[in-house]
Amino acid sequence: MDASDRLRPVLRSFEPYDPAFSPCRVNLSANENTHELPAEVRSAIGAAFRATPLNRYPDPMANALRDALAARHGVSRERICVGNGGDELLFNLLFAFGGPERTLVTCPPDFAEYANFAAMCETPVTGVWRDAEDFSIDGDALVAAARDAALVILTSPNNPTGDLVDRALVERLLAETDALVLVDEAYVEFAPEGSSVVDLVATNPRLMVLRTLSKAFGLAGLRVGYLVANPAVVDALGAVRQIYSVDVVAQAVALAAVETRSALAPVISDIVSERERLIAGLANLAGVRTWPSATNFVLARVPRAAEVRRRLRDEHSVLVRDFSSAPGLEGCLRLSVGTRDENDALLDALATILREEA
Ligand code: PMP
């Protein structure tokens, strides 16, 4: 008997997350922000880093950062819970509010970690599958499933399909069910103004909104995400979290980034216009289908997708994400929006490969 035999049975099918990362000249595989941060943000981050003593434990309440985030959203500190990336908060939500007797409802295809964390927390999942053609959500089916659920997760805009969830659907779920509703807005800064439902948190104690500094803020390596929620939810999550999961550097750097966030506007608008240029470029390639996107990535259905993805990597040093064998995403690749040069490299390489494959 080795140690793996002693693992809790529910965890035995899990394997270490290894994206088999291949170093590529152009990495458009993980929806990171590929743009350089503005000088004002970089210098604020550098100063914050240099001023941070590492011999002291972090503030487990992360109050300075929570105050800045609370100010960003016009709420009080009690409504903000920070985490080691959005991932930690998603796990803690399932840990705190899931379990064998409570169902999670999701709308796949969506972010794979929801189902993984639910499985780890022995939480049954009901998937209300999106339309196979346009990825829309059947509101009636969702509300019906949510009537028996403890928790619903909606992703707006969704990864990997790129579309927003209707605000009216979120309101309807809150009005017609007793479920806790999490709206994951990891990518919302790339969506049109007014797309967020964060303003509904103040009047809906069962609504939670997830945000991250990994995307628009360009700080995926820092690992900071946060939840805007009712104070009772924030307290519940505060009670079960690893007390120092957001370290001193992460708190200080995140605070500097949040305080200088207005300088990020040109980066975000460049990514949005590059996204539209990428979609237009893809439309010129025979056999490629795309969907509208409110994010920093584009989902594209490509002939012989897995082979095209392999050739992009091996022959052109361009890395994209392969979803071609994922249920509901057959033949699809997910292309993160890069800089102008990176997007040109991707489009040129794709055009070459598709011409040769035809
Ligand atoms: N939600 C969605 C929809 C995501 O795509 C991601 C990251 N890919 C996350 C949450 C988590 O991001 P992070 O842990 O970097 O904050």
Automatic annotation (TrEMBL):
Keyword Mitochondrion tagged: no
Residues modified to N6-(pyridoxal phosphate)lysine: 215
Enzyme Commission number(s) from the entry: 2.6.1.9
Organism annotation: Thermophilibacter provencensis
Database matches in HAMAP family: HisC_aminotrans_2
Gene that produces this protein: hisC
SUPFAM superfamilies, A to Z: PLP-dependent transferases (SSF53383)
Family named by the database record: Belongs to the class-II pyridoxal-phosphate-dependent aminotransferase family. Histidinol-phosphate aminotransferase subfamily.
Keywords, in A-Z order: Amino-acid biosynthesis, Aminotransferase, Histidine biosynthesis, Pyridoxal phosphate, Transferase
Cofactor(s) annotated in UniProt: pyridoxal 5'-phosphate
Domain Aminotransferase class I/classII large: start-end pairs: 26-350
Pfam families, A to Z: Aminotran_1_2 (PF00155)
Subunit structure: Homodimer.
Pathway(s) annotated for this protein in UniProt: Amino-acid biosynthesis; L-histidine biosynthesis; L-histidine from 5-phospho-alpha-D-ribose 1-diphosphate: step 7/9
GO MF annotations in UniProt: histidinol-phosphate transaminase activity
Catalytic activity: L-histidinol phosphate + 2-oxoglutarate = 3-(imidazol-4-yl)-2-oxopropyl phosphate + L-glutamate
Protein name as catalogued: Histidinol-phosphate aminotransferase
